[in-house]
Amino acid sequence: MSLRIFLPVMRMGGGVWAESVAKTAATQVNTSSSCRGMKIYTRTGDKGVTSLFSGERLPKDTQFFNALGTTDELSSHLGLVKAYAEEKKHEYVDQLERIQCILQDISSLLATPRSDELSDDPEREARVSMRLKFNPRHITELEEWIDRYDSRLPALTNFILPGGGHVSAALHVARTVCRRAERSIVPLISDELVDGQVLCYINRLSDYLFTVARYAAFLDGKKETIYIQPKARSAKKVREKVSENQKVLKRDA
User: In this model, does residue 30 exceed pLDDT 80?
Assistant: First the structure.
């Protein structure tokens, strides 16, 4: 079923929608001054329904919240990677924090789907449309970082296995979560509910994380593990190994 069919129509003419977006965004950003007056729990989601920035209340298993949750998970993994990388004094730490901020902006876009309904105020509609656009300069920035680190690495001639030390392994985990986030956003792009540039960014981000994972292993002096197709073991050797393990278990018992 199309998400546009499922999503109730949002009315943009009365000004409530934009105010809701601005207030929600301001609440998330300005936590330092108002967090003492905010409650952590609201009980409004106890029945499995929650709100988008538009004010629309939808079930929590809707594709919007799947995409939002996976993007949040990705940012959390990047926070863990950043902590590891800071301990090693890796140079790309600031980039990871910038990416987390951009993911926060992407979450705002995911939580503010486009509407089919036209406003009776063209100027206001244009302003709202601009707010829902993703700046493609962020994609170019990732590509520049990828090219910079890739130029310092040995040429990639084989498949490599995730690993290469704590930082590199954590980056590979973040990369796979990034791929899952990409898959969760695709339906929203297909239904033209979110700017297509968001998907381009997430796709390029997984390439960045792969490259930086390799670079982290390089900085830490860790050897990359090359994929080698395992040779099939003979049935006789398998039986001998099973028999050996059974003897060990009997002895320990």
Answer: no
